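Quick one: structure tokens for this chain, please?
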Amino acid sequence: MDLRTKIVHAGVDRDPATGASSVPVYLASTYSQKDPEQPGRFDYARSGNPTREALEKTLAELEGGATGLAFASGMAAIASTFLLFQPGDHLVAGMDVYGGTFRALDALFARWGLRTSFVDTTDEANIEKAIEPATRAIFIETPSNPLLGITDLAAAAAIARKHGLLAVADGTFATPYLQRPLEFGFDVVVHSATKFLNGHSDVIAGAAVAREAELGERLRFIQNAFGAVLGVQDSWLLLRGLKTLGARLDAEQKTAHWLAERLAALPEIAAVRYPLLPGHHGTTREVGDRASAARLDILDDNRVRRAVGEGKSVVHHAVLLADRPEVPLALGEVHRLLGGRCERCPNTEHGKNEFFHHLILYRSRSGRLRPLCRQ
């Protein structure tokens, strides 16, 4: 089956109770039982809901895993995955992971006794060097946020198997349409479903998919015990958004590739970070010949705007939006995102490892775009 067709029909294609072609929104906190001593599939909505279950089956099928779980946010999915470990354990994580992931590991789980070494995982030798006797897992993000670094999934998974470690990947930027880490030997893949998976900027959601059922049940226990489950309305919205994942990413890849190549040819651009450009940091074998996101450093925004074209340029669109107060601050707004480097951020967590903030650009009195840091 063509992948785009599979995306449309994955999971629960019909409501089993009514035959409805769209899974209903089951707004119920509890479910009556014919026999209290032998409860049915659903008893309390934190533990399970038909709408959320339909989404979770869809996520598992798209990633090729045994168990899919839907969480209240991407960070809820990631933090719940970290609860697989215990005080005294050690993790090896990518240096360029999402800032929220770094914050959780560095400021929260570190106090709990879970240590993390952050390394450049685009060179697998760095992963090997960071492993110690207490290491229990490798956590990578590829493409990474925000520098779009590419980690060799097969090599990272092989290192994990060699040392008996769990391998966890954040696949937010690629989605299962472009990359499926479980096929390379990873044990868990997590997502901020707020971004490309949903694609409509109206949901905060997260996902975790386990390759093996036993590990999936451990994660399900944490999901139920910790309670960071996705609400039923958001589950339905995410199911709807997933139906158009293939169509959206096809269009976004075409735009991103066109824009990256054109911007890379301009002397006004200091750097374009796009996985399919020659010399990009890392290897592109895991995402094939497709990528849907690009990052650039602008030296002269006015000259770039003229060079790329006033009428149809994404850069021009961004320049116009920079004067509007409702310009989005973060990647959750997929229709338009402005970003840049945080040069003098007082937040020390982003001073480490040359981390970056998501930024909003605004026009200064001189007419140049300037970054405003999101704290």
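The CA atoms of residues 261 and 310 lie 17 Å apart.
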